[in-house]
Design a protein that fits this description.
The structure is a homopentamer. The first copy, chain A, is an alpha+beta fold. The first copy, chain A, has 6 helices and 3 strands. A 3-stranded mixed β-sheet of chain A has the order 2-1-3. In chain A, a hairpin with a 2-residue loop joins strand 1 (11-16) and strand 2 (19-24). Chains in contact: A-B, A-E, B-C, C-D, D-E. At the A-B interface, strand 2, helix 4 and helix 6 of A face helix 2 and helix 5 of B.
Chain lengths: 126, 126, 126, 126, 126
């Protein structure tokens, strides 16, 4: 009857570009088992994918990417839904989805970006 | 004459996806006594719902969800009103309301989301 | 010639819902002497209004409210002016003004909220 | 060939309303030598303008003002340009410019605020 | 098979105006090898460009600039793309691109700023 159904070592903290995110290995692995995040934390692989130099003083895994656009990616892995605030640029989320290999969300983001970008394409050239 | 009317062990800190929230057990329990949060912190149940692995180094309870959308949920439990900023996506709040089982706010959010979503449904298909 | 004109014990840190705010007792008391904040920190009263359980490990006073909407309330006490960013929902500020008893700002916020709310009242019923 | 051209004791950390800002004394002094910030950190004056009670446990100088609106003020001192995001209320920046005595930016902000405020002045009276 | 392909001493933390950013030296150097950031962290130069006074108590390199507008600059160095949220003012990013000497992104930002600024130029003079 454990609310979060985690085993003892399941929680991980990621230091993404200087901001901390806490999640569970199962969240990072289950939804997209072939993604970079899944491969980073899968049982048999985790031990050699990270060298000690990639873990900071707070035992967080260092990832050199944008924290702003990682947040909706992580929420997508948690809930299975792509949800982001109106001020967030979907091009940034798409860039991270491609980097981390979250394949199922890439076509959704590509369509949103195409529609979203149209106005800027119409800017006058100087 | 204690301003906040808390008993000694009433304050709890939640680590929601890497961000800390401080609240009182009475806030988490009173408004929605059947929700997951209420059951997590109810006197008779708290002891076995969380295993030690779900508590971080700062003694905060770990919850693997979005901090952005948890914030208006917690404010709803505090004040009884659903209030959020204009840039926040109500679909994210609805997702959390469903996850945590905050039943009284779900129909309110469902109606807001339905109205809010209409424009995106009209995006051209490519 | 002390720039901030504070006596030694005048600074206080508030932990509002998990976020820290630093201010001076004189700011919390002067502008609205009958408010809850003023009564919390007034010389003769402070000692019994807070029990030790309401102070966290960093010696901050715990307040179980929204940090987002507390910020413009605190700025109002500092500068005497109600100023908030365009994405911030004035209903949230009004809720906090009522909770903390900042009487002079309540009618200002009530009028803003009434004007601000009109569009949502016109949402189609489903 | 020091990139930032600071002398050893030039860096200061300010705790503005609970948020930390790191800058250099030369930034705080050079652009507006008569401002309150300049006078706070000028060589001959700093020693008596701050009493030990105005420095927090992290050796940051305590300032009882809004961190949100201090940020563009500090950036103005750094770069000589007034730049702020579209959601930030210029009235808040003006209030801080007046408080800190950043004279050169006050007329710029006054004109922006006047234009920006017009719509609210036209709100119906109730 | 190291996911992030960093050598042991490759990670650096920057304290930009009070906010921490974590990245790798290779990110800071590769995309714009003549920029100030690249020169700050290049092997042969790093040793004398920073004096010990420019490193804070958390071993972060102190940079006296705006954290808000540094973020899209760092993301540009990471991904090669200029992406920022709709509320962020591109004039602020341009200012940082010039300061840090990120030459390839300056003309892109200059065109965006020119189009973006037009409405303000049309403000009535008072």
């Amino acid at each position: 009857a454990n609310v979060s159904s985690k085993t003892n070592s399941d929680w991980v903290t990621l230091n993404v570009g200087g901001k901390y995110f806490t999640s569970s290995k199962s969240t990072l692995i289950k939804k997209e088992p072939c993604s970079m995040l899944a491969r980073m934390f899968a049982e048999n692989h985790g031990s050699y994918l990270f060298t000690p130099s990639d873990i900071d003083a707070n035992k967080a895994y260092l990832i050199d990417r944008s924290p702003t656009y990682f947040e909706p990616i992580l929420n997508y892995l948690r809930s299975g839904q792509l949800i982001y605030d109106s001020n967030v640029n979907p091009e940034g989320i798409l860039e991270e989805a491609r980097f981390f290999g979250i394949e199922s969300v890439i076509p959704i983001l590509e369509q949103i970006v195409q529609v979203h970008k149209t106005p800027r394409d119409e800017l006058p050239l100087t």
